[in-house]
Amino acid sequence: MAGRRRIAPYLMILPGGLWLTVFFAAPLVLMVSLSLQTGNLVDGFRQTFHWQNYTEGLGAYGDTFARSLWYGLLATVACMALSYPAAYWIAFRGGHRKSAYLFLLLLPYFVSFVLRTVSWKLVLTDNGPVLGPLRDHGILPQGFHVLDTGFAVVSGLTYNYLPFMVLPIYVALERIDPRLVEAAGDLYASRAQAFGRVILPLSLPGVLAGVVMTFAPVSADYVNAEVLGGPRNTMIGNVIQSEYFDNSDYPVASALSFLLMAFLLLGVFAYARALGTRGVLGAEGR
C-alpha cells in the first residue's frame, strides 16, 4: 500500500511527461541539431556545427526580428488594456450572469483562426463597411488605407489573441475575496486606493500569465502578417515558413526558430523579474 502511494504521483505525471518529451523536448533537440548542420535538400544535410547559421540568420533578418517583437509588444499591451476592464467588470459587476458574459466574449473564437483573420481583411479593406462610407462622405481622404500597414497587423493580432489575456485576468480577479475590498473601504480607502493597493496587486499573477500566454504566440504569428500586413510588414514567422517550405533551407530556419524562442524566453523572464508575483507574495506575507 505504501509503495502504491509513493509511485502514484509519478504515474499521474507520466502521461504529461511523455507528451512533453515526444512533442516538445525531442523536436527541440532535433531543431537545435538541424540548426548547426550544412547541406541542401538534394545532397542531404550533415552535422558540421556551423554556428554561422545563427549569425547569418540574425544578420539577414534582424529588422524582421525587431518588427516581430515590437508588434508582439504592442498587441500584448493592447490586449491588456482591453482585457483588464472587461474582466474586472465581469468579475465584480457581472452578478449571476458572469458565465453568460464570458461566453458572449469568447463566442467569436469558436470560429476558425484563419476565417477570423480573413474577415478582418474584408472589414479593413478600402471599400469595406468601415472605410468605404467614411471615404465616400469625405471624412477620410481617398488615399487613406489601413490594410498592408503595421496597424492592421497589430489590430488583427490583438483581436485574435484577446482570450489568452482575458481568461487569466478574470480568474485572478474572480478569486479575490470581496471582504478584502470591503475591509479597505472600512479603513477609509477610496475606490482608487482599494483598487491600487488590494485588487491590482492580487490580480498581477493573472496579468503575468496573460502576458506570457499572449506575447509568445503573438510574436511568432505569421497568419495576420500574411493576410493583413503585406510584404513590408512581414514577421519572423513568415520568414521561417519561407525558409522551410520555399527555400528548403532547414538549418537557417531552425536557427531562426531557436533564436525566436530564446528572445521570447528572455523577454518573459525579464518581465517576470520586473513585474512578477514576488511583490504580491511579499505583500500577502506582510
UniProtKB/TrEMBL annotation:
The keyword Cell wall biogenesis/degradation does not apply. CDD domains: TM_PBP2 (cd06261). Its main location: membrane. InterPro entries: MetI-like, MetI-like_sf. It is a multi-pass membrane protein. Gene3D superfamilies: MetI-like. Coiled coil: none annotated. Keywords: Cell membrane, Membrane, Transmembrane, Transmembrane helix, Transport. It holds the Pfam family BPD_transp_1. Residues 65-271 form the ABC transmembrane type-1 domain. It comes from the Bacteria. Belongs to the binding-protein-dependent transport system permease family. CysTW subfamily. This is ABC transporter permease. It comes from Actinomadura graeca.
